[in-house]
Each structure stands twice: as C-alpha cells, then as structure tokens.
Write a structure and sequence with these properties.
Belongs to the peptidase M76 family. By secondary structure, this protein is mostly helical. The chain folds into 2 domains: about 1-105, 2-Layer Sandwich (Zincin-like), CATH 3.30.2010; about 110-190, no CATH class. Helix content is about 50%, strand content about 5%. It contains 7 helices and 3 strands. The chain has helices at about 20-35, 35-50, 85-105, 115-130, 135-140, 150-160, 170-185; strands at about 60, 70, 75-80. Helix 2 (about 35-50) packs parallel to helix 3 (about 85-105) and helix 4 (about 115-130) packs across helix 6. The chain is globular and about 40 Å long.
Length: about 190
Amino acid sequence: MGAMDDATSASGRDGYPAGTTPENCQRMISLSLSRNPTVKFLREALTKSGCPIDEKFFKIEQCSMKVAGGFKQDEGVVICSNNVTHQEEVDVALTHELLHAYDHCRAANLDWSNCEHHACSEIRAANLSGDCAWKRELLRGNTNIQKQHQICVRRRALISVGLNPNCSMLRATSAIDRVWNTCYNDTQPFDRVP
C-alpha cells in the first residue's frame, strides 16, 4: 500500500473513525473516475497497455494503517475511507495507486517483494500523482524552497517502501538510492510530470 498522508487518527462521526463514510468515499471515487482528467488518462493508459479496468477494480476499506489507499496486485485499488475526507485526497490516492497498477501492467517481472522494484514504483507514484504538490507539502509543514519536490518524493517513497515487510528502513533507503535517477525521470505514461 502506498502511504498517502501523514495522517493522525481521531474518532469520527456515526461510528466511523476519522475520515468519511464508505458511501461518501464511493461517491468521491465515482466522481474521480468520471471527472478527474489524470485518473481518466491513467485508466486509458492501462487499457492501451493491455490491462483494462472497470469500477470493480476499486474497493473501499477501513484500513488499520494511516494510508489513503493501496494497490493489491490481484485485487485492484483500495481507498481507505477512514483516512480520506476530501475529494482532492481521493483524486491523489487514485492517481498514486493507478500508477502502481500501470507499473504492474507494463513490467511483466515486477516483484513487489523486491525492495528496488517497489522503490521504483513508489518514486514514480509520489513524483507523478500530485502527492508532492507544493500545497500538500505546505499543509504538512514542509516548506523547503529548494528541491522540495524531490525531497518529498524521496520521503514519501521511503515511508511506503518501509511498510513493505521485506524491506527494512535501511534496505528501503538503499533501494531508493539505487533506482532514484532512472525511476524519478521515468514519467510514463505521461510526457512529463503532470
């Protein structure tokens, strides 16, 4: 699963933890799928790559980890309703996880237990999803002027790869360092960072 937000937990309304209800989460997913140009583009890219997806590819769960979503190679994209509250969070989470789906589709030998493979996909997802946009970083309290985007991509990739049970934080850091240049500069299926 991709770590999407450095969220803190709190109790929510109607018996749901912080976040939104599964019904509202489903509404936001549907809105992203029908209106968000980046999400629509990624769905088209998956189809062109031989991996068409439909609405059943997207699931809603109450997640125990503080993540907005995840990609499960045999199941699809999961959005954690208890960890998202706004449409923009769902848009970014779907984009992030669809990038993992795209990587899984285009790389026949992608092994998610391999720290370098996982690191590459996390670098790409953090770089291309909008997760490291200036506004999101500002809201997280990260305001470096120089290279903020790269710092964010590295930090977010480390958080995500560090959640992989096969990758200690030391192995995750090393894997990110080894694949950084290639994966940070790989913007497929986009022509450039959106």
